[in-house]
Predict the structure.
Amino acid sequence: MKYDVCIIGSGAGGAPIAYELSNAGFHVVVLEKGNHYREEDFSKDELAVSRRDMFTPLLKEEQHIINERNKDGSITRYEGSEYDWSFWNGSMVGGSSNLMSGFFHRMKPNDFRLKSVYGEIKGANVVDWPISYEDLEPYYAKVEKIIGVSGVVTKHKFAEPRSSLEFPYPALEVNGVTKWFDASCKILGFESIHTPRAILSQGALGRSGCSYSNFCGSYGCATGAKGSASAALLQKCKAKIVPEAFVYKLQSDATKIISAHYYDKDLKSHAIEARIFVVAAQAIESSRLLLNSKNKYFPNGIANNNGQVGKNLIFSAGGVGEGRFHFDSLTKTQQEELMQPGLFLNRSLQDWYEYKDADKSYKGGTIDFLFEHANIISRAKREFYDANGNIMWGTALQKKIHKTLTTSRVLTFEVFNDWLPTDYCNVSVDKKLQDKYGVPVGVINLYGHPHDLKVGSFLAEKAKKVLENMGAKEISASISASPPPNLVAGGCRFANDARNSVLDVNCKAHELDNLYVTDASFMPTGGSVPYTWTIYANSFRVADHIVKKL
Amino acid sequence: MSGGKLFGAVSPLQTIELVQQDLFPSTSNVPTTNDINAYAYLVTILHHSRVSDSHKAFIRNGVQWLNEESIKMYKKTYMQLLSQERQNVLKNIAKYRWGENWIDTILTYIFEAMLGDPIYGGNKNQAGWKWLHHKGGNPRPTKALV
């Protein structure tokens, strides 16, 4: 059978195509490397999910090579399995959207014209997007309705224009500490923003509302309230899903993809023919697939005759920070508010999405505030060391853990700012090391531009002021060039000029008539927000284009 | 259990069981390593499908290195030592990078046994969660991942 559309990857980049095209009456098949879990398969098993990483491949079977660029320009090579360094996220139907926390922010209009507005930065390949915020706005709005975004629209100086007044779904319930946060922001003159979430607060869209399980991020959602690609899209359409199907090669002629070849769980090879192929295997793996699909028409990999595949890989720059609230400085009522389980804090700051330093305007970013993850084992583990960094044990450790975990709670923050694209951060494939399928593994060449750290540190200092005003102790922040594996984009830029990009404005490969890439690979810059909402929105945009084309 | 066994007649796992008790002693109102099946849990880890072979080897090798330190300090294996002597050996190995990592590892699996879902066999009647006033998330797992 020849399908109309074959999609490789079932996450936020692939699922909107499957949803729109199959609901428009086309025959769609989705090839997903991971297992097919449904709501009833998801539990809050910390050992399985967070300690044994059940949703990601074993590194001894599938890994990456990580080449870290040192200050002197030399490269240190790490084999992921040897250093336990994983860049896998959710290998499962619905991808890592199953495991997201669902902090949903739109990119701002200036994010689409970073070079025009803020100018060039030495050593960075900053460009404007070939589309504007206005082009994507209708699709951000569509995501709100179909994926399900809940919240309260907050007016603030960097609020992006909206085509609707409010979010379509009411906000989630918040913890009592949220009012402490709002009060401190008021004192400091900061604008506290109600964080939009891709989580339904009440039953809607054929899905249940949030159960406030206290275990959201990193865990699959058992109620379907979280707007994963699986719950919100793949379960609501007739696209055929083939799980445990690892696509290792695309076969093409000079102008079009002919077939996608995959191994099933028994390592048997299969081929799928289709009129259109959509690659959405997560940024690193999408580039890897194209680079590994060499033939006489594309000797350097599919769609890579201009040598652009894998270039300009980006992550979300920034980092994390925290402060701890102790019972001894709180009233009984405040203690009870602090320890309320399940309810969200749901507050963000974007006061410095753009900021001035020495009369020059800089692009800043977003700060999301949230409670420390409820995982009890990891919270106990962080108490293993004393103030001098020496490991503890015995009754002293027991007392420390009991006191810390029962009479205090940590409020954390996450800083999101642009990871500037550079010549040194990209994806290639290794010449020797292969995975369990016998396919060359992906190589992640890492480099963080120093400007990223400057902006991240600026934002972290603002976040620390809020925690300080709220009365938190042990306030700290960690801003580094360490890449968050779950916030990765780029590698197949879209642009009008085929000489320095892989995809055209519709995310179709310049060099082929029927190949699209719709995960975060297309993004030339990442904005200063988590990517998922933008990935969903762009994929809905491309789906409209493909429907018209078919 | 304070020693008396001949070196060679003692399995590495028996030594680890004693180390678990030394690192996490029986204390009033705190679940004991026996309560939480810490030893059985560690055996599960040593056969776990998702724990790397090199990590399993590190756990086992650590016993040998512990005994080497014990013999160096007291001319006896760890299991032959008195309680305070064993604490001294632990303090000494904690100065080495491997020793600190090994103690961290053994402690980690004690806490995994005690604070993981009860379906794994430790944390009976949610004793570990109750000790730390923790409420486990729902839904709970119906099958252990081993």
